[in-house]
Amino acid sequence: MASYGGSSATSGSRTNGLAIASLCCGVVGLFVLNIILGPLAVVFGVVARRQAGAKNGAGMATAGIVLGVVDVLLWILFVTLAASNGGFSWYMGG
How far is it, in rounded angstroms, from Cα 75 to Cα 60? Predict the structure, then answer.
């Protein structure tokens, strides 16, 4: 009898969850909350690289580390630009 919905997902190797979290934090950090998500991407990526070695998400972890560093550099750039232009200003209409 044929089995439907076999366990094909459990038979293959699984990608490290921290590598996926690192990559996600790095990508989302490019658009929002880069000062929070950037360092998280770096930390998750470093831990994932130590756990994964050369398999199961080492490339994702490396990409997350690079994107995390880019996030932090973007935040530094934004803060520097804001400081050179007189800081942030909130205009409340009227």
Answer: 22
